[in-house]
Write a structure and sequence with these properties.
With 202 residues, the protein is of the alpha+beta class. Helices cover 44% and strands 23% of the residues. The chain has one domain: Aminopeptidase (3-Layer(aba) Sandwich). The protein has helices at 13-23, 28-33, 37-59, 88-102, 106-119, 142-156, 171-175; strands at residues 4-7, 60-66, 72-79, 126-133, 161-165, 180-186, 193-199. It has a 7-stranded mixed sheet, with helices on both faces. The mean pLDDT is 91.
């Protein structure tokens, strides 16, 4: 299969959010943050629409991967150096969407955000905030194509890359692209473990 990658625009927000919601529905962190299986898909759509609208599209690059059939199979959201975290104004503008999506779990979301912010490296880098593929096409080369484009961007600028993997099983996959685990991050109150991974430019 030939996978084509292009940059997203504001017209693509709904499609991008749908793929990311599908990709992260069974994610350990998302399951812990939104334990209700029936609510999670709707909550994730709302959270990703918020992130895209108020941060990712203005703070970096959002890449979309298509298969031969023209259907969107995967998405990667990168934040450029110095813009990995939303500004106070962006956070305030997006707060209603967060409250709607998380409801009574807003404290859990704030705990995760605080933990990740505190642990985030201060060295300038490209931040791979989210990368995911539709489960129906997983294994079809979409992730490889997305990482290839994003990491080429990093290497061209001689800039490191950083991500947090929420699944231990994915560590070996990211290691194939040059990432290495820096540390383990435990979500407070008995939440899952995330793996902070760093890649030097190649």
């Amino acid at each position: 299969m030939t996978v084509t990658v292009r940059s997203a625009t504001r017209h693509d927000i709904q499609d991008v959010a749908e793929v990311l919601a599908l990709a992260f529905y069974d994610d350990p962190v998302m399951q812990w943050m939104v334990p209700d299986d029936e609510r999670r898909m709707t909550a994730l759509r709302r959270l990703y629409i918020r992130d895209l609208r108020f941060h990712h599209l203005s703070a970096g690059e959002v890449d979309m991967a298509y298969g031969d059939d023209g259907l969107l199979g995967g998405v990667a959201a990168w934040n450029r150096p110095g813009h990995w975290h939303p500004s106070t104004w962006q956070s305030l503008r997006s707060l209603p969407a967060v409250l709607w999506a998380l409801g009574g779990r807003i404290r859990a979301g704030a705990q995760i955000d605080g933990m990740l912010t505190e642990a985030h490296p201060r060295e300038r880098h490209w931040y791979l905030e989210s990368i995911g593929t539709d489960p129906q096409v997983r294994g079809g080369g979409f992730g490889k194509a997305l990482l290839g484009k994003g990491l080429a961007r990093c290497d061209e600028a001689r800039m490191p890359a950083y991500l947090e993997s929420s699944k231990e099983a994915n560590i070996a996959y990211y290691e194939r692209f040059g990432f290495a685990v820096q540390r383990e991050l435990a979500v407070p109150d008995g939440g899952p473990i995330l793996y902070a991974m760093w890649r030097t430019p190649q």
